Amino acid sequence: MEVRVSGVRKEFDRFPALHDVSLDINSGELIALLGPSGSGKTTLLRLIAGLETPTDGKVFFGDEDASLKSVQERNVGFVFQHYALFRHMTVIDNVGFGLKVRPGANRPSKEEIRRRSSELLDFVQLSGLEKRYPAQLSGGQRQRVALARAMAIEPRVLLLDEPFGALDAKVRKELRRWLREIHDKTQHTTVFVTHDQDEALELADRVVVMSQGKIEQVGTPDEVYDRPNSPFVYSFIGESSSLDVSIQSGTIHLGDKALDLKSEQADGKGVLYFRPHDVELLGGSEARISGVVIASRRVGATRRVELEIDGTESRVEIEIPADHPAKVGSPLAFLPKHWRVFGKSA
Ligand code: ATP
After folding, report:
1. Model pTM?
2. Which residues line ligand 1 (CB under 6 A)?
3. ipTM score of the complex?
4. ABC transporter domain spans which residues (predicted)?
């Protein structure tokens, strides 16, 4: 275990930015903190860094309680969204800065700093730009310098706060792949903040989904995409469709109709969630979710269909093969292949 966040609460002027957050980060993992604006991602990152102190709870680095340790003592490397490079320093001096300001005994010689810095610049594919100033670099290049600078101190943990947030979509995509490659080579324990689900799913070993100061789910990209454990995760990651249902003796009911879907949940009202693309079209309407097509449009290789569910005013969207006629006004019936029901209060 590299970092353990244990029961952390953080209040700013009585405003709870994080409630009882616990998270274990393994050595060498690439972790994404994913959530909407204000969900507490940056606060959690800053707590791990030592830039904030918890109101309650603790942060451990290995077995050691790091809660009272400074940023320097924790030995973390940072990259922020807005490149915080020193404008008056060349690229190579920027990379070597963290080593140069180390206290006496730990400070490598000038030659050693230069050697390590140019090695790192080579590593982030910026050889040849050593003598440039930040203003003479593109946004993507600056972020690569920032990453080289963060790695120069050989941090125990690398913390990246929306590192590609200020870049355009194309550069962002390139840097994403590049970061993954760099991580695979260095195996630095890395935590990065993003509100972009694609970025989190593509890059991370595990995704921490946050909402309103709480962790909603922690899992591999496949787990959080295929098995969301809350309505929030269903809606925030990928697309979801939902319908009001009830559970009666272990069977899901839509209105009075018993569907061919079993649940172990207690009887009561609930909401059925599924992915619009993850459905099977079926003949007949018995035990199916059946309705009338009210909108049908082709989207690339598939067709998006909106159905008004029989006997209700509910509407639901599903995705079916593009060659299906699905004419407006025609009946259609389906069942989701994977789904979850959450209690109404969830
Ligand atoms: P974003 O994606 O917009 O950066 P976030 O998920 O990183 O959002 P945080 O920056 O961690 O969210 O903020 C969580 C909550 O705590 C927000 O409501 C924010 O307004 C509040 N907050 C954060 N820092 C402070 C502070 N220094 N003082 C007061 N409130 C703060």
Report:
1. 0.88
2. 12, 15, 17, 35, 37-43, 195
3. 0.95
4. 3-237
